[in-house]
Amino acid sequence: MKSEFPTLVLIVAASLVFGRGEGWMPKPPAPPPVATLTNEARYVEWKFREDVTDLSTGLAAYALRTNALALASELEPKEDWRVVKARVYAMLCDQMAIDVSPFDWYPAISICNGYDRPMSAVIGRRNAKIERTYYPDVARCINQGNREGVWTVWKDFDHSVPVWEDMFKLGFAGMRDRVIAQDDGKPFYLSLSITADASIRLIERFAAQGRKRLVAADGQSSRLAKQISALEQLAKGPPRTAYEALLFIDLYFFMCEHLDAMQCRSLSIIDRNLWPYYRADLASGRTTEAEFREQFRHFLWQWASVDNYWGQPVTMGGTTADGTTEYNPLSRIILDVMDECALPTPKFHVKIGKSTPRDILDKLLDMARRHRSLTFIGEEPARRILEHYGATKDEARIFYTTGCYEVALANGANTTGVGYINLLKQVELVLRDAKDGKFSAADGAAFEAECIRRMVNVCTNCLAIASTFERHLDDVNPANITTLGVAHAVKTGRDAFANGSERGNNTGLQISAMGTTVDALVAVKELVYEKQEMSLADLGKLMAANWKGRDDLRLRMKRSKRKWGNNDPDANATAAAVSKALAAAVNGKPNVRGGIYFLTGHTARAFIYEGEATGATPDGRKAGEEFSKNMSATMGADTEGVTALVQTLSALDSRDWPGDYPLDVMLHPATVEGDRGLALMRTLLDVYYANGGLQIQFVVVSADELRDAQKHPEKYENLQIRVCGWNVRWNDIPKAEQDAYILRAESIMQ
User: Residue 324 burial (CB < 10 Å; 0-12/13-18/19+)?
Assistant: First the structure.
C-alpha cells in the first residue's frame, strides 16, 4: 500500500502509521483456495490474509465498506458524529460475516485485511470535511513540509493503550453497565452504549456460530466446545480463566482495530496479567500446560496472520511493589512458545531490572541472538524518566509499552505521535543558503548554532500545527471502544483518546537523523573551520552537486572516525547541544488534550523515506541515501566497537527523550557465542542502563551470512532483521536496504 501524503494525512489505521514506508512492501503470496485450509497450521496462517468466514452469516468486507459509507452519509446530517460512528460500528458487528473454526481457538471475521477496513473509508471522508472546515491552510503547510522532507506529519490514531486490568475485571458487560450508571442522556453516553451493546451482540453471534459448527462436527470437538463456553461467558461477564482472558484480548483488539479504526498498541503485560488466571486453572484442573501452550501459540498466530509490517507490541515482566520479580512460571512458558514459533510479530517488549531472574535474562538474550523479535526495556531508566515527568513511584513501576517501544502509564494514558522532524534537512538548507550567499558563519560554533536554531524552529512550528489538528481528533475519529475501557473518560464524558485520560494524553514529537546530523555538523567544522579546505559557500556548492568530482573527499569523510557512535568527544558534545536545545523547546509544553509534548528518539522508516528527500551532506552521505535510525549511529559509522557505541549514548540525558531512547546494536555471531557471549550481552545491558539508556535491541548477524542470504534467499526463509522497533523477514527487504545492513555488518568487530 502506498501513502504519498497528498493532503493532511489521516492515520486511521495501522497500515498508515509509517505511511510512505509501506509502498515498497512485497505483495503476499497468492492465498491457497479456502478448500485447502483443512488443517490447523494452514488455517491460522491464512485466516487474516483472505476471507475464511462463512458468508451465509453476513457480508464480506467490500460490501460492508459500501454499507458503512451509505449509513454514515444518511446519519451525519441528523445525529452527533460520535453516535454516527457508533451506529456504523454496530452495523459492522451485526452484518459482518464471521466463523468459528475447529482449527482455531479464536474467531474469524470478514474484515480481515488491516490495510482496507470499512470504517477507515468513513473516517477518511470525515477527516477531509473537518480539514476543509477548520484548518485548510495548516493542511497545505503540512503537505509542503511532507513533500520537501522537512518532516512527516500526520494525525495519529495508532497508540491507544487499554486499561487492561480494569477491563479484565469488568468484561464487556461490566463496561456497558458502567456507562449506563453515568448516562445523562448526552450523545457521548449513547454512542458508548451502542458500541458496548453491539460488541456483546457480536460475541453472541460468535457463540451461536460455534454451536452450529459443533453440531456439524457431531459434538466431537473439545476445542469448539471450550471456545463456545468462553464466548458465552464473555458475552455476559468478565474472563474467569487464562484462555478466556486471551480470548478477551483477541476480541477487544480486533473490535478496536479492525472495526472501530483505532489501533490497539498493547496486548497487556501478558505474563503478569495472565498468571493469576493460569495458576487458578491448574489448581482446579480446568486446563493443562499443554493445552495452554496450544492456546497461546494460536494467540500469537492471530497477529502473525495479520502480519502488520511494524509488528504488534506485547509487554512482559516488571517488578512488584516489594521488589520481587513479576516474571513467573507462566513467563517461561510464554517465552518457550514465542521462541518455538519464531514469528516476526508479535514483538515482545521485555522489562529488565534488578529483580529479573538470571535464567529469564539469559533465555531472552539467547533468543535475541537467534533473531527473535525482542526489545529490552530498562526498568530503572524508565522509572527515572516517568517520575521526572510527574508519575508516582507506583505508576512508574507498573509502566506499559506501546508502539515501537515507547513507555506509557497503565491508566489509559493514550499518546499520539504527530511527526518525524528531519534534523538533517536543516543542515542541508543552511548549506544551500551559504551556497547562494544568504548565510555565512565566522566559525564552527556559529554554523552549529544556526542549524540548531532552525531545528528548534521547525519543532516549534510542528507543535503549533499539531495543536491545531489535535483539537479535532474526536471530531474525526471518536474512540468509542477505547473510551469504554477508561473509567475517567466515562466518568467525565470525554473521549479517551482526545482528552479523557486521568493523567492526560501526551503527544510525542519524533526526531529523525540524530546521528547523521551530528556527523554532518562535525564534518562542516572539520572541512571549513579546522582544516580550512574550502569555504562554507564552496562546501554548499559541492553538496548541491552531490559530491560531483570529489569522490575522494566524500570517501574520506564517510570513513572518518569523528562520528556519533564512536564515543568521539566532538560528536558527543555536538549531540548534547542539539539534544538540550530540542528538549527545552518541546518537553513539557502543554498540548491541547490535557497532556504535554515530549521528544521521542525512534525514526520508524523515516530514516529511509526522509533520507530519499534529503540532499548530500558533508559526512560523506550522498543525496537520497538513508541516514541514521533511532538514536543509533549512521549505518557503518560506528567503527570503534560496541563499547564505544554504548558509551556514546551516555553523552545525552535520556530524561530529555521521555518518549523513547532506543539503541540498535549489531553484533557478530562469533562475539556472542556460548556463555561468554551471554556475559558480554549482559554487560552491555548493564552499562547502557547505568548510563540512563532506555531501550536496546540486538541484531546478531555477519556480513558473510547476509551476503549469502542475498544470493540464496531460499536458504534463509526464516532469517529476520531489525528495522526500527520491529522485525522483518530478510527476504522481504528491498536490495538497497539489504545492502545497507551488509555495510553495517562489515564495520562491526568480532
Answer: exposed
